[in-house]
Amino acid sequence: MQKWVSRGLFWLVVALVLAQAIRPSRVNPAIAGQHEIQSHLAVDPAVDAIFSRSCNDCHSHKTVWPWYTNAAPVSWLVAWDVKRGRRELNFSEWGTYSPKRVAKKLDETCEEVTHGDMPPGIYTLPHPNAKLSPADVEAVCRWTQSVGGTKPESERGE
Ligand code: HEC
Asked: Is any ligand 1 atom within 6 A of the Cβ of residue 47?
């Protein structure tokens, strides 16, 4: 029995060491000031702070990569989230969005936070400060509506 445990542990360590060889890209593309959301919309300071605290790691080019994002398999998971997050919504590429996409992303932003789907639970675990309070959610939705979004789903009667 003991022999199997130590063999299992041995191979686990080997697998973890080998896994480190697969290094996903953890690059922050250059910040182009003219594409940042702040250059296109008046972002309410409270909302700006919420985005910095809870969203920018996955939805901008300002990702902070803590030490543990260096270690596989965490590195794979985080890099994948950042890649998909930026593809869906990127505050650093806001200036490249069409007016239609802007309106859609504003609505989706309010919807995601209202449903508690963003920021994801896997993110708030190591970043408890990123959790949004009901007041944060209200501030985000009030702002998205004030800059061209529509009313939240709940008030549209869908
Ligand atoms: C840990 C990374 C991470 C954080 C932090 C995060 N998101 Fe996301 N977000 C994602 C990923 C990955 C997707 C794409 C897959 C999905 O929809 O689940 C996404 C998708 C979205 C979408 C598009 C949803 C749709 O309907 O297509 C919106 C809007 C969004 N996030 C808003 C936010 C906001 C606002 C915050 C901060 C309050 C936030 N996210 C924080 C990873 C993140």
From this structure: no
Pocket-testing residue among 105, 109, 112, 132, ligand 1, by greatest number of atoms within 8 A of Cβ: 112
Number of structural domains (the chain) is: 1
Other beta carbons less than 10 A from residue 24's beta carbon:
15
Q: Which are the contacts of 103, defined by CB distance < 8 A and separation ≥ 6?
A: 148, 149, 150
Distance, in Å, from the CA atom of 100 to the CA atom of 102, rounded to the nearest integer, reads 5
Structural domain span for residue 146:
2-156
Closest ligand 1 atom to residue 105 Cα is 29
Residue 156: burial class (beta carbons within 10 Å; 0-12, 13-18, 19+):
exposed
The proportion of the chain whose per-residue pLDDT surpasses 70, expressed as a percent, equals 95
Angle between helices 134-146 and 45-54 (to 10 degrees): 120
Among protein residues, the one with the nearest Cα to ligand 1's atom 28 is 109
Q: pLDDT digits over 47-101, tens only? A: 999 999 999 999 999 999 999 999 999 999 999 999 999 999 999 999 999 999 9
